[in-house]
Design goal:
CATH architecture of the domain at 116-272: 3-Layer(aba) Sandwich
CATH superfamily of the domain at 116-272: P-loop containing nucleotide triphosphate hydrolases
Shape: elongated
CATH class of the domain at 116-272: Alpha Beta
Strand content: 5-15%
Distance between the termini: 79 Å
CATH topology of the domain at 116-272: Rossmann fold
Largest sheet: 10 strands, parallel
């Protein structure tokens, strides 16, 4: 309901009008009823303060009325507060007809805003509930609240729902989204301020000659302002620079995907919009595709797969769901490959805005993460991109703009799969018809074509592929990489396929890997078929070497330089019998040998790995002895779980904080654990054959619980 109150010079002569005003005022305060005051040939200040001709009339009414003093005080309060609500004054209009038209438009807009229904939006209530304590509408202080999250997550929809629900409680309200259209800062701010005042006051021809009018015009008004899609801090400084610009009880909601903007504007109350759960995402897709929260019979598996393709992103769920609406099951199956191959145009356009706003260095970092580095730790990314611009600053910028997420406890950098798809599409567009000239090759067919036709070039920085996606074995020979002089990243891994292919995907190396570019920093080759790695393949730039589930019997001959090597991973290489001399790998942090079941011992050169933090040898079932006199002071993680044949265990490190080992060493006969960092041995430590135990200078409070 909306009440329109027309104040005239003689309005206060009627006790009936004044009593009705009190009733309307009570509904305004208690029920949030909207009120539009119209001041016809009377100054709003005279109504508010009961002065001038209006005040004289009011005083006469009070003298002759039979109403008690309490009722008269209620009249005065109602006049004061209602006259403070933004409305229309006839003195601001050339003729009454134009004013009446504006009032009519105001009423229509308010009614339309109220009728907008977000109640059927899946998951909306949880967001509203989370924001209620931040908004705290019963508090009379001015509050600024931020809504932040990646593109397509539903920030604007949440803001519109809030605006719809709260509008009736505020004298003036507006939902705006302004973008920079001119380069001159002052001129742009002046244009923004003029447009903003016009929007919130409902006046078309506002004239301002200088900045600062917002605080003068709105300082006594209770306003609701939603500033959507903010990507320029200067916009906030113009329309909502400080809380003191607005009247008591005002609420300003700022929607952005850039956390830095909120922090810079000192907004502390922030609602971070996260990705919905799998169940909620499925419900969102179904609402868009089927008009209900659950899929019809026979559609569950398909609906789940499409939900995964959308990466639980509400925009993607809505767009993909809409594209599949009213289609039968056969059409869904036919549409899946198309959905898997690329981004929908609407989704790409929305996400691309964020990428285009980055500078060139941050765009380059975005592409590297999208194509290769998502899922890696900050430290790993810094190691692999060493020599590039400040990586930490770039990662922070991407995180603030909601393009990546950095998760605990290992500071892992994660990028949403639709953003990854955007990055890969940007790379594909660099050379649509000649993939050998792109920066990154990530598509199995493109990679296969480049190797078959030998069309690689020095533009290629990385090749990353799931070998399960090859329709036939990928054959590589000594010429395959000759033209790729700048190749830095080579990763062949085996993962889950969205569409099953016939035949077993694998790599075919008739001559072995006989040549790799010298600038290679990362070499991952799952199921490497060779028995050893040629020594000439290991270059000075190599940072990560991972050949899991390989056929390797030994890694290489002799000693390699290894100036940059940080990680070695040989897990599940069940034929691996020996580890080469690692004396020169002085920067090695991680050595993973889990499930290398033919491995019997480690080389004595391991004692030189003074930066080694992680040593994984779980389920090396033939491991019998570790080198004596080893002192790895930097070691933090040691995995020896499932090594029942291990007989002798030397003191290795005082700094180990996490162990997966001792409870499974039932065959251990000698344990030298001086300076032990543990406070208690595991209760399931069962050393049946232990004959020598040394644990001097340790932190143990007790050996174990129970009888051993």
């Amino acid at each position: 309901m909306i009440s329109i109150i027309v104040f005239s010079k003689k309005y206060a002569s009627s006790t009936w009008c004044l009593n009705e005003l009190v009733e309307i005022y009570q509904c305004y305060k208690e029920l949030g009823q909207m009120v539009i005051p119209v001041f016809y040939d009377v100054d709003p200040s005279d109504v508010r303060k009961q002065t001038g001709d209006f005040g004289n009339t009011f005083k006469k009414t009070c003298k002759r009325t039979t109403e008690d003093v309490k009722q008269q005080l209620m009249w005065m309060q109602a006049l004061k507060d209602v006259a403070s609500i933004a409305g229309q004054s006839s003195r601001n209009w050339n003729n009454d007809a134009n004013m009446i038209e504006q009032i009519s438009n105001d009423v229509s807009n308010k009614l339309f805003t109220q009728s907008e229904d977000f109640g059927d939006f899946v998951g909306m209530d949880a967001h509203i509930e989370a924001m209620n304590p931040m908004l705290c509408l019963e508090n009379e202080e001015v509050r600024m609240v931020g809504i932040v999250g990646p593109s397509g997550i539903g920030k604007s929809t949440i803001a519109r729902a809030l605006f719809s629900r709260l509008s009736s409680r505020f004298d003036n309200r507006t939902f705006v989204s302004y973008k920079r259209t001119i380069q001159d800062d002052y001129g742009m701010k002046l244009a923004w301020e003029k447009q903003f005042l016009s929007d919130i006051l409902g006046q078309k021809d506002i004239k301002i000659d200088s900045l600062g009018v917002v605080q003068r015009r709105l300082k006594n008004k209770k306003v609701l302002i939603v500033v959507d899609d903010v990507d320029d801090l200067k916009l906030l400084e113009t329309v909502a620079g400080k809380k003191g610009w607005f009247g008591c009880g005002s609420r300003i909601i700022v929607v952005t995907q850039d956390m830095h903007i909120l922090r810079s504007h000192e907004i502390e109350l922030i609602h971070e919009v996260d990705f919905p759960s799998k169940d909620l995402a499925l419900a969102m897709l179904c609402r868009s595709a089927f008009g209900k929260k659950f899929p019809p019979d026979g559609f569950m598996e398909l609906a789940v797969e499409v939900t995964e393709l959308a990466g639980n992103l509400p925009l993607g769920l809505n767009v993909l769901g809409s594209s599949l609406r009213s289609r039968d099951k056969v059409e869904w199956v036919k549409m899946l490959p198309r959905l898997q191959d690329g981004l929908d145009g609407k989704i790409e356009k929305t996400l691309r805005i964020s990428y285009d706003a980055l500078d060139s260095k941050d765009q380059d970092l975005f592409i590297h993460i999208a194509c290769l580095l998502s899922g890696k730790s900050i430290i790993s990314i810094e190691n692999l991109l060493k020599g590039s611009a400040n990586i930490c600053i770039g990662l922070r910028i991407l995180a603030e703009k909601s393009l990546i997420r950095i998760t605990s406890p290992y500071e892992t950098v994660e990028m949403h799969n639709l953003l990854r798809a955007l990055g890969r599409e940007i790379v594909r567009a660099e050379s649509v018809y000649n993939p050998g000239k792109r920066r990154f090759l990530v598509n199995a067919k493109d990679i296969s074509d480049v190797f078959k036709d030998n069309t690689g070039s020095d533009s290629v920085l990385g090749i990353i592929c799931n070998t399960s996606e090859f329709s036939e074995p990928l054959s590589m020979d000594k010429k395959s990489f000759k033209r790729m002089n700048n190749l830095e990243f080579l990763k062949f891994h085996k993962g889950r396929r969205l569409v099953r292919k016939t035949g077993e995907a694998r790599l075919y190396l008739p001559e072995g890997l006989v040549y790799l570019p010298r600038k290679l920093k990362l070499l991952h080759c799952n199921e490497y078929p060779g028995k050893y790695i040629p020594s000439n393949l290991i270059g000075d730039y190599l940072v990560e070497l991972k050949m899991e589930n390989s056929k390797l019997e030994k890694m290489w001959e002799g000693t390699q330089p290894f100036r940059s090597l940080k990680k070695i991973g040989m897990c599940y290489s069940k034929d691996l019998k020996e580890i080469p001399d690692l004396s020169n790998a002085k920067n090695l942090n991680v050595l993973n040998l889990n499930c290398c079941t033919s491995l019997v011992t480690l080389p004595s050169s391991i004692r030189n790995l003074h930066k080694l933090k992680h040593l994984g040898m779980n389920k090396c079932t033939n491991l019998k002895v570790l080198p004596a006199d080893v002192s790895l002071e930097s070691l933090e993680f040691l995995g020896l779980r499932g090594n029942s044949r291990l007989r002798c265990f030397p003191g290795i490190s005082r700094n180990i904080s996490y162990c997966l080992w001792i409870e499974n060493l039932s065959g251990l006969s000698t344990l030298d654990w001086d300076n032990c960092p543990l406070r208690c041995m595991p209760s399931n430590f069962l050393p049946k054959h232990l004959s020598h135990l040394s644990m001097t200078y340790n932190k143990l409070e007790k050996l174990w619980t129970g009888v051993q």
